[in-house]
Amino acid sequence: MAEKQANMNQLVLIKANELDISQKKVGVEEQELIKEAGIMAQLDHSHLTKLFGICLAEGITIVAPLRPLGSLENYLKKNHNSLEPKELLLYCYQIASAMEYLVSRHIIHRDLAARNVLVKKREHVEVTDFGLSAVLHQNLILPLKMPYRWVAMELLGQPRDKALYSEATDVWSFGITCWEILTFARIPYEGVRLDGPNVLASLHTYLKNGSRLIRPVNCSLELYQTLLLCWAPNPITRHNFKVLRQQFETYKEDPHKYVTTQQNICVIETIIDEDIGKVLYEKLEKSGSDEIPKINEETRLSM
User: Fold this and answer.
1) Would the annotation count 129 as a binding residue?
2) Which one of 83, 123, 222, 266 counts the least CB within 10 Å of its CB?
3) How far is 184 from 36, CA to CA, in rounded Å?
């Protein structure tokens, strides 16, 4: 990576990518890159990183604005003692807004995670590494390269099926990204014992059995149910980004109702909370509609 001064007095990042077209049959891949780059350059959303250009002379280099604060993943780790609920929910809202815009342009991200969100300033984040991901990150479908902790369960079952990628799979990843934000960038499923040689299959079995990431200790039950619906086993029953943007717009207006401050965190019965997802998905399946079943505190305590 290198820094350059743009004509408009803006620092830019020149990022080399792993895929080296100069060592491949250029043809189709190069044409697809140029096409996708042209589409990306036309995108205009305040919470998407702007693409200034790409160069194919020696491999692939991407020119984009430099964000000295770095990725949201690292920012959360460094600032976990000072970030407030309003900022955590604001990040979720801004990411949902950017993803809703991508959907409107028929673009699937494929690799949404806190590491692929950049911090422009304390109250402004940008989704990055979108659009070109289908071309640049072709190895994401390889079992050894797949970011399995972030991908939807249906992809774990059929990792090489590109046709499965959709808004619904990005919604699953969005739920994981929100979980990262609420936990200040903890590793998803870090406490789950997975079979190393068969990690995709073992995580797929874990999820297929109804288990999900546990509720973060600072997360309200209502907010947790929103995350659980991002991880619904049936992709059709997951929220879309329009609904998620609307929900997080509501959440950020009253942040302390949905996220507690670190000073006020109380112990949550994680074993009980692990059952919430199973109950929610059972109710969703029985309802046979898009209406979202609610689990109140009384129901939770009776589990």
Assistant:
1) yes
2) 266
3) 33
pTM of the model: 0.81
Query: Domain limits of the chain?
Result: 1-66, 67-301
Residue type (1 letter), 217: V
Which of the residues 111, 161, 275, 290 is marked catalytic? Answer: 111
Q: 209 a known binding residue?
A: no
Q: Please state the three-class secondary structure of 141-185 as a single string.
A: HCCCCCCCCCCCHHHHHCCCCHHHCCHHHHHHHHHHHHHHHHCCC
Q: Write down the residue that tokens 């806190």 correspond to.
A: 114
Instruction: Compute the distance between CA of residue 166 and CA of residue 191 in angstroms, rounded to an integer.
Output: 28
Is 139 labeled as ligand-binding?
Answer: no
For residue 161, indicate whether it is catalytic: no
CATH number of 67-301: 1.10.510.10
Fold (CATH) for 1-66:
Phosphorylase Kinase; domain 1 (3.30.200)
Blockwise average pLDDT, block size 10, the chain, 303 residues: 46 48 46 72 88 71 82 97 97 98 92 95 91 53 76 90 90 98 96 87 94 94 96 96 98 96 48 59 63 52 46
29 exposed, middle or buried (CB, 10 Å; 0-12, 13-18, 19+)? Answer: middle
